[in-house]
Amino acid sequence: MTGVSIKSAREVALLREASQVAVATLHGVDRMIEPGLSTEAINDFVHRDTLRRGAQPAPLNYHGFPKSVCTSANEVVCHGIPSEQHVLEPGDIVNVDITSIHGGFYGDTSVTFYIGEPGPDAKHVTEVARRSLTLGIAEVRDGARLGDIGAAIQEFAEPQGCSVVRAFVGHGIGRRFHEPPQVQHAGRRNHGMRLRAGMCFTIEPMINLGGYEVEILDDDWTAVTRDRSLSAQFEHTLVVTKKGCEILTKRSEPLVHSERFGDLWG
Ligand code: MF3
Ligand code: CO
Ligand code: CO
In the chain, is it the N or the C terminus that has fewer CB atoms within a 10 Å radius of its CB? Predict the structure, then answer.
């Protein structure tokens, strides 16, 4: 007994709808994001756009989180709190993590955006994180094991001179924000729970330019790299299928402020 539920086709359809609400809002953020914008302005947009789509922003009041979206810039690994005082500058990278509740189900997705032109380090850590998610997803199919996902990410990211954050994991998702299983982004092939068609979870690797250790700031939320090196993250919500998986937060259009450098590894 793993406590991991197998979703019905109807449940998957509802998760897909919730996921696509989050994707639509993410495209709205892509259209507005630029130097000079505050992370509070992103929060205001995400909050209002989510409600306009008949959904609720899951982060707001989740275990006391004070805002409707997480905005994590530069050395912030995850759970950055939007603020009027935090104005985005050219060369910054910022992860915007959107989770929408719609029809009783959660959809969770994030990307790292480039603010203006990135320096080489920002571009490197961001593209390693983007590729890490792609490679993790490529492991997913009925019969594969959870450890295969982390192994694929670790085997790619570490030779690139990056590290994989251990302190936060991907998660099962459904009628709750965080369900079993925990999806580690570093691991061993042929280890861990076996994946079965109908399981729904996120993969959301956090990749650092320095060491993998994190520290939580005094606001009790903001996770930063202990060595203050840059960190980047991408997240999708997916459902396991017989032959692979369906990415429920798949985008039909590229994001101008993230994907314009493409994937350096094809
Ligand atoms: N969206 C995050 C995740 O990917 C969780 C954010 S929890 C919050 O799991 F409270 F900070 F919003
Ligand atoms: Co998540
Ligand atoms: Co998320």
Answer: N
